[in-house]
């Protein structure tokens, strides 16, 4: 029954260069995940207890998932991803078993990264449950805390979690020895947007006058996911115009930017 929880094992192929901007986050993730796996002797020599888990937080579409995949891929680690809410199930007891089996799987696949996406769906502050006794959420959380407490970072398992809602995360999860590093992955600045356009447009044939710097300047509140949507839309517009189109032109990108609004605006208009 536990097998119903999606815990597909993969070796992701995302490279650091596939992510525009956020050099500081990339560097920190390398230190937190790569060093304990690769520099075990140096870390032991210095007598430090390496971080246990890292929590990435920030608005949707700003590369939290890409970051987790990239650090696993660049460090040569297996990757097990699960969405927080998927761990809940309607059968009593099964959700805790799912957490247990997830970590058992990670140990068997070590060196590995366990990635909890949308951890807020799992780890909301327990005070916010409505006084109806021990909820499934409480039990899943307790199991997660037990597993985190039992982790020895240099034994080959790194835990990364992501959330858009740091404010509702149970503080028990943020204590030392659990998710004890918190990194903000925010919206891209202009230089990062230029890099993100470069990454996505490099996969498409573009006319030589397409200028990624102007595109970056025109898209001030766009996230990485919005920019990826703009590039896709531009290619579709080129094809709508002429099914034999061979390149994306400046006019296609301008129209795409006019059509694809930044997700922050889309959300506030809902
Ligand atoms: P959510 O909170 O909604 O899960 P997220 O922060 O995990 O979002 P990702 O899933 O990593 O965001 O990004 C979604 C998509 O947006 C990526 O697959 C990629 O195509 C694009 N993208 C986002 N940020 C970047 C970036 N910095 N560089 C290149 N592409 C990006």
Automatic annotation (TrEMBL):
Q: Which residues form the AAA+ ATPase domain?
A: 50-189
Which residues does UniProt call coiled coil?
A: none
Which family is this protein grouped under? Answer: Belongs to the AAA ATPase family.
This protein is called AAA+ ATPase domain-containing protein
Which organism does this sequence originate in? Marchantia polymorpha subsp. ruderalis
The stretch of the full-length protein covered here is 735 to 1004 of 1045
């Amino acid at each position: 029954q536990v097998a119903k929880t999606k815990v597909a094992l993969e070796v992701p192929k995302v490279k650091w260069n596939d992510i525009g901007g956020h050099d500081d986050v990339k560097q920190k993730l390398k230190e937190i995940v790569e060093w304990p796996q690769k520099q075990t002797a140096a870390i032991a020599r210095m007598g430090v207890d390496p971080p246990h888990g890292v929590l990435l937080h920030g608005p949707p579409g700003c590369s939290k998932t890409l970051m987790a995949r990239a650090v696993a891929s660049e460090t040569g680690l297996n990757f097990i991803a699960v969405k927080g809410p998927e761990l809940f199930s309607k059968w009593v007891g099964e959700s805790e078993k799912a957490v247990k089996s997830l970590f058992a799987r990670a140990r068997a696949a070590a060196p590995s990264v366990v990635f909890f996406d949308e951890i807020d769906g799992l780890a909301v502050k327990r005070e916010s449950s409505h006084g109806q006794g021990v909820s499934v959420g409480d039990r899943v959380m307790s199991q997660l805390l037990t597993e985190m407490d039992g982790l020895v970072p240099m034994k080959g398992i790194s835990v990364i979690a992501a959330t858009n809602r740091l404010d509702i995360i149970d503080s028990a999860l943020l204590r030392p020895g659990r998710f004890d590093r918190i990194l903000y992955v925010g919206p891209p600045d202009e230089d990062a947007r230029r890099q993100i356009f470069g990454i996505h447009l490099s996969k498409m044939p573009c006319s030589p006058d397409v200028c990624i710097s102007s595109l970056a300047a025109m898209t001030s509140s766009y996230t990485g996911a919005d920019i990826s949507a703009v590039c896709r839309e531009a290619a579709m517009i080129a094809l709508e115009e002429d099914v034999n189109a061979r390149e994306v032109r400046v006019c296609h990108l301008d129209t795409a930017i006019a059509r694809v609004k930044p997700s922050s605006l889309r959300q506030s208009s809902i």
